[in-house]
Write a structure and sequence with these properties.
It is a single chain. By secondary structure, the protein is of the alpha+beta class. 56% of the residues lie in helices and 12% in strands. Strands 3, 4, 5, 6, 7, 8 and 9 form a seven-stranded mixed β-sheet that branches. Strands 1-2 form a two-stranded antiparallel ribbon. Strands 10-11 form a two-stranded antiparallel ribbon. A hairpin with a 2-residue loop joins β4 and β5. It starts with 16 loop residues before the first helix and ends with a helix.
C-alpha cells in the first residue's frame, strides 16, 4: 500500500524537556552547588515532563481562548471582572507547584544569597518552552517580590512574600507594574498620572495607564506624580495598589478594554483609568523611578529567558521535523543548505544560552554581596535583553521556514511561538533603549572594563584561538577610545555597532569558558564555525557540517 505521509516515521517528541536538553542539564549539573542541585533535581525533572506534556496542551488551549472582560454583572453593577479559560488557571497551579518562587522567596527571601536565581530560572526556563503568555505575569510577580523585599515595610513584606512563595494556588498572588502611559511610552518621564495625599502613606491615584499587563494582579506597583511641578522621572513616586481596601471594599480600577495582542494571548493586558484609586506610597517620595528599576531589571532578565526558551523550542520542533521529513529523495537534514541553516541557528542558541546564564550567575553573586558582579550586571542586563530578543525572533522565524508550510499552520506550536516571541524586542525597553542603557552603564560604571578584563582572562587561558580573539579585543579597546570624544548623537549611532561587536566577542569567550569534556561536543562545533568566519575571507566557505555534527550542535535527546 502506498504510504502518503508527511513524515517517514512517527513524529518524535520529547517526553521531558529537562532530560532532553543536554545543554541546560549539563550547565545546571556543572554550575550549581551539589546541595542546591539536589534541592531542585526533582522539580527540574517534573517541570521537564510537565512542559513537554500537559503544559503544552494547556498552553495551546489558553492561546485559542483568550481572557474576556466582563464590565458589569447582571444587575448593572460595575465589576471589571476578567474571565479566563480553565487552562490558564491550571497553568498557574503548575507554576506554583513547581516551586520556582517558593525556593526563592520562602522565609522572606533569605535564600537569595544562595544561587536562588539559578535555581528559579532553571525551572522556569523549562516552563517557558511551552507557555510564554503566563510567563509575563510570573515575571512581574518575581519582579514585584524583588521590589517588596527591598522597599516595603515589614508588615507588607511578610504578608506579600508569603503569598508569592505559597505552594497553595488559592493563596498565591501575582504582580504587575503599571508604567506605560499614552503620552510617554518608553519615555516614562512624560507620565501624567497624579497622586493626591490623604493620610499617612495613603494616596488617591488618578489618570490613565495605557498598557497594564496582568491587569488582574493582586499586587500592583504604579508610578504617579505627587507634585505636577516636578517634571521628568525625578518627579515620580511609586505606589502599591491592591484590588481590595482594608475594609474589604473593591479598589477603583476602571478597565477600559483588554488589548487585542498579536501574541501572548493567554494573559490579560488592558487599558485602565485610575479614579481615586487607593495606593500606598512605597519608599521616599520622588524616588519612584529608581525603585521601579528593580522591577524593570528583573523583568529584562525574564525577557531574555523567555526569548531563549521560545527560540529553543522552535529550533527543536524544526530539528525533529527535518530528521523525519523526506524531500527530493532524501531526509531533509541530508540537504547541505538545510544543515547550513541549522548550524547557524544552533550557534546562535548556544551564544544566547551562555550569555543569559552568565547574567543570571552575576545576579546571584550580586545578591550575595559581590560588588564587582553588581558592576558588570548593570551592563549585562540590557545587553542580554537586547541580544536574546533580537536573535530569538530570528531563530524562531527561520525554524518555521525550515518546516515549510506545515510550520505556518496553527495546529503546530511554532506559529504560537512566533506570535509570542515578537513582543520580546519591544517589552521592557526596545533595542534602541537597551543600547542607550548600555552606553550609560559603560560611562557610569566599570562594567565595560570588567567585561574586557574577563574576556582577556578567558583568552589567556587557551591557545587555539588566542591570536584572532586578542586582535579583536584590541580593536574594540581602540574603538572605544575614539568614540568617547564624539558628539552625543554621533556617539549613540556608533555605540550601536560597537556594542554589537562587544557582545559577539563576549559570547565567543563564554563558549570557551564553558567548554569541558562534556560540553565540547557542542561547543567545539560552534567554535569551529564561528572562528572559520572570523578568519576567512568573505567568499571562502568550509564544507557544511555533517548530520552527526548538527545532532551534536543541537544537543537534544529524544
Amino acid at each position: 500500500m502506498h504510504r502518503n505521509k508527511v513524515l517517514i516515521n512517527e513524529a518524535r517528541f520529547s517526553k521531558n524537556f529537562y532530560t532532553s536538553d543536554l545543554i541546560h542539564r549539563h550547565y545546571l549539573e556543572k554550575n550549581l552547588k551539589s546541595d542546591n542541585l539536589s534541592v531542585i533535581a526533582e522539580e527540574l525533572f517534573k517541570m521537564g515532563q510537565v512542559a513537554a506534556g500537559v503544559l503544552n496542551n494547556l498552553s495551546m488551549a489558553a492561546d485559542k481562548n483568550p481572557p474576556q472582560l466582563v464590565k458589569r454583572d447582571a444587575w448593572g453593577e460595575d465589576t471589571d471582572d476578567i474571565l479566563f479559560h480553565p487552562a490558564y488557571k491550571e497553568m498557574i497551579k503548575l507554576a506554583v507547584e513547581s516551586k520556582m518562587f517558593h525556593l526563592k522567596w520562602k522565609d522572606n527571601g533569605l535564600s537569595l544569597t544562595d544561587e536562588a536565581n539559578t535555581k528559579s530560572f532553571g525551572i522556569s526556563y523549562l516552563f517557558a518552552m511551552s507557555e510564554s503568555g503566563l510567563y509575563c505575569p510570573l515575571c512581574m510577580t518575581d519582579a514585584a517580590a524583588t521590589l517588596i523585599s527591598k522597599h516595603c515595610d515589614d508588615s507588607d513584606k511578610k504578608r506579600l512574600l508569603e503569598a508569592i512563595a505559597s505552594l497553595d494556588v488559592d493563596s498565591f498572588k501575582t504582580g504587575a507594574m503599571f508604567l506605560t502611559e499614552k503620552a510617554g511610552g518608553s519615555d516614562v518621564g512624560a507620565n501624567l498620572v497624579t497622586a493626591t495625599h490623604q493620610e499617612g502613606r495613603r494616596y488617591f491615584l488618578n489618570g490613565e495607564k495605557w498598557f497594564c499587563s496582568n491587569v488582574n494582579a493582586e499586587i500592583i506597583f504604579a508610578l504617579a506624580r505627587t507634585d505636577s511641578g516636578k517634571k521628568g522621572t525625578k518627579g515620580l513616586s511609586i505606589f502599591l495598589i491592591e484590588p481590595f481596601k482594608k475594609d474589604g471594599s473593591r479598589n477603583a480600577l476602571n478597565i477600559i478594554r483588554l488589548k487585542d495582542k498579536l501574541g501572548v494571548k493567554s494573559m490579560a493586558s488592558a487599558e485602565c483609568i485610575l479614579n481615586d484609586t487607593e495606593g500606598k506610597l512605597i519608599g521616599e517620595e520622588f524616588n519612584g523611578f529608581k525603585i521601579m528599576t528593580d522591577m524593570i531589571n528583573t523583568s529584562r532578565l525574564y525577557n531574555a529567558v523567555a526569548a531563549l526558551s521560545a527560540s529553543r523550542r522552535a529550533l527543536i520542533e524544526a530539528f525533529q521535523f527535518a530528521s523525519q521529513r523526506k524531500t527530493f529523495g532524501k531526509i531533509l537534514l541530508s540537504h547541505a543548505l538545510v544543515r547550513d541553516k541549522f548550524s547557524e541557528l544552533g550557534v546562535l542558541h548556544l551564544k544566547n544560552y551562555y550569555l543569559t546564564w552568565r547574567t543570571i550567575a552575576a545576579l546571584d553573586k550580586a545578591e550575595a554581596g559581590v560588588d564587582s558582579e553588581k558592576e558588570i550586571l548593570r551592563l549585562l542586563t540590557p545587553m542580554v535583553k537586547m541580544t536574546t530578543a533580537d536573535k530569538g525572533v530570528y531563530i524562531t522565524r527561520e525554524s518555521m521556514e525550515l518546516m515549510g508550510g506545515i510550520g505556518y499552520i496553527e495546529d503546530q506550536v511554532v506559529p504560537k511561538l512566533m506570535r509570542d516571541i515578537m513582543v520580546l524586542p519591544i517589552w521592557e525597553g526596545a533595542g534602541n533603549i537597551m543600547l542607550l542603557d548600555m552606553l550609560r552603564a559603560s560611562q557610569k560604571t566599570k562594567g565595560l572594563q570588567m567585561l574586557f578584563d574577563e574576556i582577556q582572562r578567558i583568552i589567556d587561558a587557551q591557545k587555539q584561538y588566542k591570536e584572532v580573539l586578542e586582535k579583536e579585543l584590541t580593536r574594540l579597546k581602540q574603538q572605544l577610545e575614539k568614540i568617547q570624544s564624539l558628539p552625543l548623537q554621533q556617539l549613540e549611532v556608533f555605540a550601536k555597532y560597537f556594542f554589537i561587536d562587544v557582545i559577539d566577542l563576549y559570547q565567543v569567550s563564554l563558549l570557551l569558558m564553558n567548554r569541558d569534556e562534556i560540553s565540547k561536543k557542542w561547543i567545539d562545533i560552534a567554535l569551529k564555525l564561528i572562528m572559520h568566519k572570523k578568519m576567512s575571507s568573505q567568499n571562502e566557505h568550509e564544507s557544511t557540517p555533517s548530520i552527526e555534527e548538527i545532532n551534536d550542535l543541537v544537543a537534544w535527546g529524544f
